[in-house]
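Quick start: what a row looks like.
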Amino acid sequence: MVSLGMNLGLAEQLVASDPDRAVELIAEARRATVGALDDIRMVMSGIAPPVLGDRGLVGAVQALALDLSVRTTVASRLPGRPPGPIESAVYLAVAECLANVVKHSGAAAAWVDLGAGDGLLRVAIGDDGTGGARRGGGSGLSGIERRLEVFDGIMEVHSPHGGPTEIVLEVPCEW
């Protein structure tokens, strides 16, 4: 971040006298920013927020829902708390899905349904937005899928153009 600030400061000074060098410094600063954000995401993916430890998965998801600009309901039929690593991975996956709802869906309402059965923790996240969510292409959905694969979990995406969107996460879980 220090390097980023220095590059931007130097670029600001060079804009009038050496615009080509200023453009190079700005491009270098952008690359540094992308790298820093990737590093921050990697570190954050391993850190569980305090609310998760205090309230468990259901309470933490409810807290997420309260902070969203899209009206979001949370329903749960969990028999207890899942093991810590699974709880953390699922919480972060739900958080990413809800962030996508706010950023991309144009939805007026969203929902999260947490359930368990047949040795699975199953979470459905949906919205009444415009649809069109897809895996791949560097989307956040690819990161969610990788996070769940560590636990032999899967993600299904149902998001026809015109909506609605539903993302289903399933992770094997012993209660």
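That is the whole record. The mean pLDDT is 90. Residues 38 and 44 are 10 Å apart (CA to CA).
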